[in-house]
Specification:
27% strand, globular, DUF7666 domain-containing protein, 127 residues, alpha+beta, DUF7666, four-stranded antiparallel beta sheet, three-stranded antiparallel beta sheet
Length: 127
């Protein structure tokens, strides 16, 4: 079996979500962030459960930087923050989502529209 990944770097946000198996409901994609015990990352953004973080430096390009970054799974998010101790699921508008080229799968957005929810490494909600 040959898996053809040709063109993955040119995917639209919709195509990126479909390719990575991201759940999308009513235009909102469920993505993941790896965080520390204080619900932050090295960048200092607060992803506490119930919060809806936003940034003021969003760059509408496919390059890293200029936005909040997320993975299609908690494991992808962990690859960018190996020191993480917790994970959150977030809702991001697909219309605002920009896939980032190179490295493990990730995408960025200017804001979270569905509040952060704590999940485990498999994406299951922690109660």
């Amino acid at each position: 079996m040959v898996l053809d990944h040709t063109g993955v770097e040119k995917f639209s946000a919709d195509e990126w979500c479909e390719y990575h198996g991201v759940k999308v409901s009513r235009g909102v994609a469920t993505l993941y962030k790896a965080v520390n015990d204080e619900w932050t990352t090295s960048r200092g953004v607060d992803y506490s459960p119930g919060s809806k973080p936003a940034c003021n430096d969003f760059s509408d390009t496919d390059a890293c930087g200029g936005g909040l970054h997320f993975g299609p799974t908690p494991a992808h998010a962990l690859s960018y923050f190996p020191e993480a101790t917790k994970f959150v699921a977030v809702g991001v508008r697909v219309s605002e989502l920009r896939p980032i080229n190179g490295g493990p799968a990730k995408a960025k957005a200017p804001r979270v529209v569905s509040a952060c929810v704590e999940v485990d490494i498999h994406g299951k909600e922690v109660t």
